[in-house]
Specification:
single chain, about 325 residues, mainly alpha, two-stranded antiparallel sheet, 2 strands
Amino acid sequence: MSQSKNEVVARGGAFAAIARWFDTSVPDDAAPVDPHKPEWSRLAPFILMHGACLGVIWVGWSWIAMAVAAGLYLLRMFAITAFYHRYFSHRTFRASRAMQFLFAILGNTAVQRGPLWWAAQHRHHHRHSDTDEDVHSPHTHGVLWSHMGWFTSRAAFATNAKAVPDLAKFPELRFLDRFDILVPFLLAWALFGLGWLLEIVAPELGTGAWQMLVWGFFISTVLVYHATYTINSLSHLVGSRRFETGDSSRNNFWLALLTLGEGWHNNHHFNPGSVRQGFYWWEIDATYYVLWVMGKLRLISDLRPVPARVYEHAGRKGVGPGPADTTRSAA
């Protein structure tokens, strides 16, 4: 008996959905879906990443595996905050084309899609922050959806190249965006190989291939995931407001520590073009400190400062006691 047309289409749709895990350019010819409904093909890899963390039950732990996980957390969090966010999304400093490509690779290791997709989504967020068109506003779509639901929708999958024409003109960035699983796959294999090597040459460290993979890749990646996601969710709910921005963005000291400076979210929404988000010396912004050093080493250039008008608007000039916060909210 021959298959019906609907069965063939359904199978093709399922195969295409899985193929898009590896090549994001595979066309999506399915009917439009509810943009606020998870799609299994997007949800499955996310669940698998979390499920793999349970491997710690069998592989155990070692100080070296935990140190690698912590180091990769810091490196990849910095790559997201400095490069995917402050460079690709907001162009707050300049870099050579070679450095730009390196930044894109480092950001890609965080397993948060490609640089074009990430920047396009973030620019859209700034244009429509906390409105119905903001795909991850906790006020319009709920906290869970803003934290980790929105990107599991098929509607949020495609890269809007029109939103990032300055980036889409580079074929190497388009390649990374198309095959956004390639770099994370290579990182996972590198960590597996590192664990295998250490098991042979330094058995006293008590690690191995599978332990290094679970801690260095899966656990570290999931921690980077949720730390990043707090800026979409909690930074629009919990903290203080220095500026009236037309949205609910807030400054939060603890989230700033967790995300290397991204928690000064109200500052950022008031002036997204500045390379620093902690506007005052007591607002810890680790990402900015590293970028400042990179600037001194001439690895990057033209770091855009906080304009004087911002401090004037806040009621202060330069450093000193911070301006009073006028609005506070709890979750």
